[in-house]
Amino acid sequence: AGMFTRRILVVGTGPEAASVWDSVSTSASATHTIVGFVSVGADTSVDVPSAMVMPEGSCVMQLARDHRANEIVVAVRERRGGVLPLRELLDCKLAGVTVNDLSSFFERMRGQVRLDSLRASWLIYGDGFRQGIGRTVVKRLFDVLAASVLLVVTAPVMLLAAIAIALESGFPVIYRQERVGQGGRTFKVLKFRSMRLDAEADGKPRWASNSDDRVTRVGHFIRKTRIDELPQIFNVLHGDMSFVGPRPERPFFVDQLTDQIPFYAARHSVKPGITGWAQVRYAYGASVDDAVQKLQYDLYYVKNHTLFLDVLVLLQTVRVVLTGDGAR
To answer: Which residues of the chain have pLDDT under 70?
Structure first.
């Protein structure tokens, strides 16, 4: 193990501890290694390799020293009733060992805020989720400048796309659709039309899919290359959207997902984006399960968004467009 390897001691042996084990053991990176698991309180189930579980009653501080652990992850669902060795954990922290809960571990490891380990108190008291005026002004200036440059650069591409759509399936070439934006307010998102004119003739909203038979031939090309999203530059200039943020959903699906997924509305605390952290981290998907996965990345973005993260997402989006991977 190298000098920068995180040697992790996990407090807990149940399903939460198993999720930490799975995350580390399946990671392509070799920067994390688990040195052992500590059984605490009522956490009697053993869902982790039994050979790595420390003897009952072991002192956490002593274990951390013996195994040269530089990080402790508390992976216990039920913390009430004095089950956690808080004094020992504090001693470890004072000795320079990083002590993290499950949410913080997954945030760093996977770039997502895991819903199954999320508590409302963590959202309220934790770092991040700040929407200060300075950050808002900087982001808006960046959006206007980038949108103006991109509009000039992509104008010929947009003209050719409009002509191709009109020749194949007629007018209109621009598709306006109601989406939910910041603060839950609705706006009309602009896209080049990639589906047949009668795509939703029955008036019922449907999840789009990767192999949607409603998509035209030109539509397939402009979707794959993301050219269909270019008219949203005007949404950015108008102030309804940002370049980077959670993708805006339709009101019908937002109502559905808000009922089914905890904290879903938190993604509306920032402007929606043409691209986002979820789009460069998660493959294409259009179902409730996919929405849960994407929300975990969206919450990470809402919590940690900075101009640096925006630039990182834009650079990764260029890679996604050039390789044809990723999501929409």
So the answer is: 1-3, 28, 42-44, 79-82, 117, 119, 121-131, 199-211, 284-286, 324-328
Our measurement of the distance from residue 306's CA atom to the centroid of its chain's CA atoms, rounded to an integer in Å, reads 14
Q: Cα–Cα distance between 245 and 278 in angstroms, integer?
A: 9
Question: For position 19, what pLDDT does the model report?
Answer: 87
pLDDT at position 207 is 61
- Residue type (1 letter), 275: T
Q: Euclidean distance between the first and final Cα of the chain, in Å?
A: 38
| Identity at 49, one-letter amino acid code | P
Q: Where in the chain is the domain with CATH 3.40.50.1980?
A: 6-110
- Distance CA(203)–CA(245), nearest Å, equals 28
CA distance to 64, 84, 132, 263, per residue, from 311 (Å): 38, 41, 19, 26
**Beta-sheet strand order (sheet of 32-38):** 32-38, 6-11, 71-74, 98-101
Alpha helical stretches, state H, 170-281: 217-224, 232-238, 251-260, 277-281
pTM: 0.75
Return the pLDDT at 328.
44
Q: Which residues contact 3 (CB under 8 A, 6 or more apart)?
A: none
Tell me the C-alpha to C-alpha distance, in Å, between residue 327 and each of 18, 95, 224, 291, 295: 29, 44, 10, 12, 13
Q: Which amino acid is at 74?
A: V
| Residue indicated by tokens 């598709």 | 175
Residue type, 240: D
Backbone angles phi, psi at 45, to 5 degrees: -70, 140
Do the Cβ atoms of 45 and 78 come closer than 8 Å?
no
Closest C-alpha among 58, 60, 125 to residue 90: 60
Length of the chain: 328
What is the third-level CATH fold of 6-110?
Rossmann fold (3.40.50)
Q: What are the pLDDT digits (tens) for 266-324?
A: 889 899 999 999 888 887 666 778 888 888 899 889 888 888 899 999 998 888 777 76
What does the pLDDT read at residue 177? Answer: 92
Give, to the nearest 10 degrees, the angle between helix 15-25 and helix 102-110: 20
